[in-house]
From TrEMBL:
<dbReference type="GO" id="GO:0016887">
    <property type="term" value="F:ATP hydrolysis activity"/>
</dbReference>
<protein>
    <submittedName>
        <fullName>ABC transporter ATP-binding protein</fullName>
    </submittedName>
</protein>
<dbReference type="Pfam" id="PF08402">
    <property type="entry name" value="TOBE_2"/>
</dbReference>
<dbReference type="InterPro" id="IPR008995">
    <property type="entry name" value="Mo/tungstate-bd_C_term_dom"/>
</dbReference>
<dbReference type="InterPro" id="IPR003593">
    <property type="entry name" value="AAA+_ATPase"/>
</dbReference>
<dbReference type="InterPro" id="IPR017871">
    <property type="entry name" value="ABC_transporter-like_CS"/>
</dbReference>
<keyword id="KW-0547">Nucleotide-binding</keyword>
<comment type="similarity">
    <text>Belongs to the ABC transporter superfamily.</text>
</comment>
<dbReference type="Pfam" id="PF00005">
    <property type="entry name" value="ABC_tran"/>
</dbReference>
<dbReference type="InterPro" id="IPR013611">
    <property type="entry name" value="Transp-assoc_OB_typ2"/>
</dbReference>
<feature type="domain" description="ABC transporter">
    <location>
        <begin position="16"/>
        <end position="246"/>
    </location>
</feature>
<dbReference type="InterPro" id="IPR050093">
    <property type="entry name" value="ABC_SmlMolc_Importer"/>
</dbReference>
<dbReference type="InterPro" id="IPR027417">
    <property type="entry name" value="P-loop_NTPase"/>
</dbReference>
<dbReference type="InterPro" id="IPR003439">
    <property type="entry name" value="ABC_transporter-like_ATP-bd"/>
</dbReference>
<dbReference type="GO" id="GO:0005524">
    <property type="term" value="F:ATP binding"/>
</dbReference>
<dbReference type="GO" id="GO:0140359">
    <property type="term" value="F:ABC-type transporter activity"/>
</dbReference>
<keyword id="KW-0067">ATP-binding</keyword>
């Protein structure tokens, strides 16, 4: 049986299988050979920059656009030929799309009435859905009398009232301020767990995806670049694109040279890094590392030393972020801040100490 990030076993939730999906808008090839399996009860993110096709794939699953080729199955059933309302799939839109002239309760009831459910069943579901999102006490208000976060909760209530087996969330937090985003994303995660819903969350915000999702598919240029758990993608990105998209990455250019039989990655005439056995360096391969994995060392410590000069200092609270020029590239190094510890000054000569197990060798 599948398990969620919190270890809870899930029964009854649906698996989503996307096979060889292509979507064109006229000449534009928007989704290219998408293959993906989303496990029952997973909270899954589509993450990527604007325009890479995330929403297009979400809308395809919901039934609001068509594939040029490929197959989408939910719970083993081919859904692409079904109308949206028969798919057991509920979608929450970025804009919320609430009716301004209807009360909160009537907004939630609307989709149920369209489905011709009996009145008492509609009333029961409206009440239950609003209670679930903590909006029962505001059932008589109009959307204009609600905050952004409250409107978002109504939009979620309206979707879960139809009792979908799959929940699709299209950038649901983008209209909220930073504090509210953190609160509502937690609520969404809790709700998803309680209802045991296979959920896809579309976002271009890596922090959001990392915070609440079990797994992430990173999209770029209409393709899935990598799929994995947040920590695995961060620690083991498969490409420069993914390394750059998930967190801050230092990227050093260089070329492979062999000196006395040893392979070196030559960053400048005076700075070279030994290439570990088993690593393949091809044209376009770069040396990549995270700011917190390196340190500034005066003495001691294991690893490769890169001589550089401090070019910038930012105090971030828990750490100090140094910009250090290594050759012609500036790298960022996060040093944990300790009260009373001396802080280097701009212009100081330093050694960047880079443990060999923190080096990534990546290409585009
Ligand atoms: N109905 C449409 N007709 C033609 N082109 C479209 C249509 N909808 C989207 N596109 C184009 O398809 C590409 C993918 O759009 P999509 O909305 O899926 O991207 P996205 O990754 O969700 O971006 P965002 O984060 O900005 O919403 C974009 O180049 C967009 O301009």
């Amino acid at each position: 049986m599948a398990q969620t990030r919190d270890g809870a076993a899930v029964a009854g939730a649906r698996k989503i299988e996307i096979t060889n999906v292509n979507v064109h808008y006229g000449e534009l090839h928007v989704l290219k050979d998408i293959n993906l399996e989303i496990q029952p009860g997973e909270f899954f993110a589509f993450l990527g920059p604007s325009g890479c096709g995330k929403t297009t794939l979400l809308r395809l699953i919901a039934g609001f656009n068509n594939a040029s080729s490929g197959d989408v199955r939910v719970g083993g059933q081919d859904i692409l030929a079904m109308p949206p309302w028969k798919r057991d799939v509920g979608m929450v839109f970025q804009s919320y799309a609430l009716w301004p002239h209807l009360s909160v309760a009537r907004n939630v009831a609307f989709g149920l009435e369209e489905r011709k459910l009996p009145r008492d069943e509609v009333a029961r579901r409206v009440k239950a859905a609003l209670e679930l999102v903590g909006m029962g006490h505001l059932a008589d208000r109009r959307p204009s009398q609600l905050s952004g976060g409250q409107q978002q909760r109504v939009a979620v209530a309206r979707t879960i009232a139809i009792e979908p087996k799959v929940l699709l969330l299209d950038e649901p937090l983008s209209n909220l301020d930073a504090k509210m985003r953190v609160q509502v994303r937690r609520e969404l995660r809790d709700l998803q767990q309680r209802l045991n819903l296979t959920t896809i969350f579309v976002t271009h915000d890596q922090e959001e995806a990392n915070a609440i999702c079990d797994r992430i598919a990173v999209f770029g240029d209409g393709r899935i670049q990598q799929v994995g758990r947040p920590m695995d993608l961060y620690e083991r990105p498969a490409s420069l694109f993914v390394a750059n998209f998930l967190g801050t990455a230092n990227i050093l250019d260089g070329e492979l040279v062999t000196v006395d039989g040893k392979r070196l990655f030559k960053v400048t005439d005076t700075i070279s890094v030994p290439v570990p056995d088993g690593v393949t360096i091809s044209p376009g391969t770069r040396l990549v590392f995270r700011p917190q994995h390196a340190s500034l060392e005066d003495a001691g410590g294991q690893g490769v030393r890169l001589p550089g000069r401090v070019s910038n200092i930012e105090f971030l609270g828990a750490s100090v972020r140094y910009g250090v020029m290594v050759g012609t590239s500036e790298v960022l190094i996060d040093v944990p801040f300790q009260s009373g510890a001396s802080v280097r000054t701009v212009g100081a000569d330093v050694n960047v100490l880079l443990p060999s197990d923190c080096m990534l060798w990546l290409a585009e």
